[in-house]
Amino acid sequence: MTRNKVTVIGAGNVGATTAQRIAEAGLADVVLVDIVEGLPQGKGLDLAEAAPVVGHDARVTGTNDYADTAGSDIVVVTSGIARKPGMSRDELMATNAGIVRAVVEQAAKHSPQAILIIVTNPLDAMCHVALQASGFPRERVLGMAGVLDSARFRTFIARELGVSVEDTHAFVLGGHGDTMVPSTKYTTVAGIPVEDLIPRDRLAQILERTAKGGAEIVSLLKTGSAYYAPSAAAVQMCESIVLDKKMILPCAVLSSGKYDGCDGLFVGLPAKLGADGVEEVVKFKLAANEAEALKRSAAAVKELCEAVDRLGF
Ligand SMILES: NC(=O)c1ccc[n+]([C@@H]2O[C@H](COP(=O)([O-])OP(=O)(O)OC[C@H]3O[C@@H](n4cnc5c(N)ncnc54)[C@H](O)[C@@H]3O)[C@@H](O)[C@H]2O)c1
Prior knowledge:
Elements: E1 5-9, H1 13-24, E2 29-33, H2 39-54, E3 60-63, E4 74-77, H3 93-110, E5 115-118, H4 123-134, E6 141-143, H5 146-161, E7 168-173, E8 181-189, E9 192-193, H6 200-211, H7 213-221, H8 228-242, E10 247-254, E11 266-274, E12 277-281, H9 288-310
Parallel strand pairs: 1-2, 1-4, 2-3, 4-5, 5-6
Antiparallel strand pairs: 7-8, 8-9, 10-11, 11-12
Helix pairs in contact: 1-2, 1-8, 3-4, 4-9, 5-6, 5-8
């Protein structure tokens, strides 16, 4: 029996931290890929040399050659440029669409059975590009955003109430941008709806901070964007797939039939992740205002996808 193999494309902040977390959790062997010569090899070797101290046997290697990624079970795509202060995620589109198309074509050729987890922004449009570039079925193309956005929401709720983050559960749905939809109906603390615990106006402030959570970090860092929480979120998705845990996580998935206004689009929805990828899109009965907000968010995703199609990606 061989260990699972995960390829992480992009050996920058998100990619290298994702590789580290996967290896240290002993989830899989990791192949780190980048366009810059020496960068993935150097980080791969450095991560491998940490293994005796950390105590794991996952093999971590770095390469510029996609032949080394052959037979991967999962491919995590983090390659591309990140936001600078004042930039929206959408402004990354033209550059990152070209990068995502190129890397996904290569990765899909060498790992035709892999499950793709897209991280590069603008997330929902990059999933759309990856689906086309790979030719994979919808079950095997998904995007990371909702786990991260929900983790931010959970962090702020736990701090507000002075409770463990582990007691907070949240679902942030919709597109990964200003129109994201934190579903307060399905956000609970030890099973109690958050709406019963935090006054409405204070909750509105927390929701606002969640929606702007990425920009808050970009403006603090000055160069680069968040990567500790994004990598943790991507690894939780990998874990559910590698261990066939069937966790229900908010992920960008190609929607069909279950949520009004979302069909044919990659939108953040509750998805059951297991060995086959997206095994089910779970239907939540959203509050009327949340269902409307989800439709608006899907419309924004549609505009982005049409724009990326017009650019010829
Ligand atoms: N979905 C999310 O919630 C989320 C969260 C954080 C970051 N992101 C996105 O993830 C992406 C990466 O962020 P980062 O902070 O790691 O950036 P980074 O600049 O640290 O790393 C990006 C890496 O991609 C590499 N790269 C560029 N073109 C490539 C190509 N053609 N082939 C292979 N590698 C290539 C670069 O050399 C670089 O090492 C950005 O688009 C960022 O916006 C998304």
